Amino acid sequence: MKKILLLILILIVLYGLSVFAMPQVSSTIDNAVGMPWFSEKLRWGKDTFDNTVTDIPSLNEFKSWALDAQKKFLDGVDSTKDTIDTVRGWAQKVEDTYNWAKETYDQAKNTLDEAKQTFEDLSGKVQEVQGVVESVQELTGGSE
Length: 144
Fold this sequence. Notes:
Blueprint: H1 2-21, H2 23-33, H3 38-54, H4 59-140
């Protein structure tokens, strides 16, 4: 039993080596077993693993990326600050315009109130004059 397991293990190891060392042989074995894609899938998996493991950035690359990220972050902060300053300027202009409009409204209201008071005073004077005219007419004997 041990010999059979050892033989199977040796065959598996030889097949595994042939997948990378002799791809045509492993492809022939794959076709014979009915899995023509198997060795290609193993090679693809190894390539992916190699690229993942060996694609580790160096310290200088990492520093460069960090500096780029810092610059982009600071540029974003500066841009945001500029936008906030611009909005603050617009808000100040809106507030100034509102205050001007409110002041103009208050002045117009005061002018209208004064005009109303003047009209009321004038109306009172007209009524007084009319009362005097009526009194004079009564004293002089009526209207002609």
